[in-house]
Design goal:
alpha+beta; 4-stranded antiparallel sheet; 7 helices; about 25% helix; DNA-binding
Length: about 290
Amino acid sequence: MPELPEVETVVRGLKQTIIGKTVESVKILDEKPLINSKVPEFSRFIEGRRFTDVLRFGKYIHFLLDNGSSLVAHLRMTGKYIYQDVLLGTEAGPRTEAGPPTLPENSAHLRIIFYFTDGSKLFYKDMRRFGTIKIYRDGAVIEEKARTGPDPFEKIVTPAWLLEKLKKRKQAIKPVLLDQKLLSGLGNIYVCEALFKAQVNPFLPADRLDENMAEKLLAEIRNVLRLAIKKNGTTISDFRSIDEKSGEFQAMLQVYGKEGEICRKCGSVTISRRKQEQRSTYYCSYCQGVD
DNA sequence: CTTAACGCCTGAAGGC
DNA sequence: TGCCTTCAGGCGTTAA
């Protein structure tokens, strides 16, 4: 589900809510997300620790702890973090004003609950159970970061840098842009949108893009991601921020999920869909010069 | 080294 | 109504 803008939206929400909070205890309802630790080790790792910061690299969420260790989480398709503030008024009676919905601890797909010392909670839900949470002691998180490519916003990423990388790839440009070791953060939605905006043929071999195309493509990748972040991401079916709000970028989608609709740019042909590496690519055959 | 298929999971939607 | 197939914001592994 989530790509860079959705992860950024989640991270911003977490920054505002959990920094400075100390984990009193953790309840693990499903150990599958714990990729490199078992339940007892994970509990010992996190209990008593205070979150000092929450960062993002690519599509990863990086939780920093007060002892220099880290948690690194990936949402994959359906992972989500939901923050629940201290429930006020439970002693004096039910709240009357509309507050955030409370999440029952037996709700569907709940995997992990972090209980903070102040009474607030962080829920981790994941319907499909693809999401992961890894633990890293001290600075070991560097190794994980080294395995992912730079964000498209990083300074080293220039049109010349991109062109150089693309020259080494004979594969079609679309699947190449999904390779997180090249550039991190793009997923199926924003790749389709950026290629459309840049008017690049998704099936064109990556090594055949010229300087102008690479420059335009990088500019549109950044534009699309920036705008999507501003809109708090895209909600197709179930993406939600940590306070369970939907994103708003879906209203601005030009091609993703628009098969059969008239192209908003040229107005002359309908949007097509074709599989590349088992994944749907949406495009305008006219605007993007596809045969 | 790159590339492409498969597997991991659950649930929704569409065809018959 | 029910059954079967396909599809889904991702990516690690494996085999060629």
